[in-house]
Amino acid sequence: MQNNAKAPIIVETHLVITEVIDGDSIKVSSIFNKDEKEIRLYGIDCPENKYNRKMLEDEKKLHTPAQFLLGLGQEAHKFVLSVAPVGTSVTLQIEKGNELDHYKRHLAYVILPDGSCLNETIVANGYARATGDYYCAELPKYQALQLRAMQKKQGLFKYISRL
User: Fold this and answer.
1) What are the E-state strand segments in the chain?
2) How many angstroms separate the first and last alpha carbons of the chain?
3) Fewer beta carbons under 10 A from the terminal one: N or C of the chain?
4) C-beta of residue 117 within 8 angstroms of C-beta of residue 109
5) CB 15 within 8 A of CB 26
6) Which parts of the chain have pLDDT scores under 50?
7) What are the boundaries of each domain within the chain?
8) Residues 22, 49 contacting (CB under 8 angstroms)
């Protein structure tokens, strides 16, 4: 899956994944100076893998117990680790003018060594929902990928009809 974002893009290279925080957030560092930053993946949202404020909001919104959502979040985390483990070299594509979320995390499309987009891979396999919480030029594509994953009952959609 190739990322075809239309917005003006900033490209950052020579990065390696240092931590997979959860299904939609990672940490990367430069191979040159070891500067590390947290990346929130554009256009997707995964269930949380630990108890927090958002977990409680999701529990109410989805009418689903937090304990169950926690298990889904942990499954999404494992999936991301399986396709983009620590040590994976990545390239970031960042939409100019849309670089940070409201928690000051960096937003990006994460391009893997094979040229595939991690954001797309996660949603296409049913481990995240497409979200417009932050502008994302690829949102319509992600929504279509999510619908296909839901119809095929892939990933988390084996257990729940919507995220």
Assistant:
1) 9-22, 25-30, 36-41, 44-45, 89-95, 106-111, 129-130
2) 23
3) N
4) yes
5) no
6) none
7) 9-158
8) yes
Condensed to tens digits (0 to 9), the pLDDT of residues 95-129 reads 999 999 988 899 999 999 999 999 999 999 999 99
User: Is the CATH number of domain 9-158 2.40.50.90?
Assistant: yes
CA neighbor of 144 nearest in space, from 127, 159, 160, 123: 123
CB 102 within 8 A of CB 49: no
Reported as type and span, the H/E element at residue 68 is helix 66-83
* Structural contact between residues 15 and 91, judged by C-beta atoms closer than 8 angstroms: yes
Tell me which DSSP letter residue 130 carries. E
The pTM of this model reads 0.91
d(CA 69, CA 62): 9
**Rounded CA separation 33/59 (Å):** 41
